[in-house]
Amino acid sequence: MDLENMQVKVLKAMAHPIRLKIIKKLGDQKLCVCELNKDVEFTQSNLSQHLKILKDAGILESEKNGLWMHYRVKNKEILDVINIVEKVISDNVKNLNQELGGQ
């Protein structure tokens, strides 16, 4: 797989509301599936499918600990990407509000 296809795979994996929520919830910590499944609106099988997509894209890594599978963000720079996107959106909204307020 070439670099461009790998980039697309990572960005597509992140471009789903549930997967984005999973990445943000993990942040700098390691959590088991049971912890990830708390306070969410999707089933454990649905969560497992999303975790697999994130793992296949190289965003998450897993480790079996006893009976539980624990997940963590493999490369913390992915969190920087999310923060940058949030800042861009925030700046765009701020600029739009300033433009609308100036009319």
UniProtKB/TrEMBL annotation:
A Pfam family assignment: HTH_5
UniProt xrefs under CDD domains: HTH_ARSR (cd00090)
UniProt keyword list: DNA-binding, Transcription, Transcription regulation
Transmembrane regions listed in the UniProt entry: none
Domain annotation HTH arsR-type: ranges: 1-93
InterPro entries in UniProt: ArsR-like_HTH, HTH_ArsR_DNA-bd_dom, HTH_MetalResp_TranReg, WH-like_DNA-bd_sf, WH_DNA-bd_sf
Keyword Nucleotide-binding tagged: no
Descriptive protein name: Metalloregulator ArsR/SmtB family transcription factor
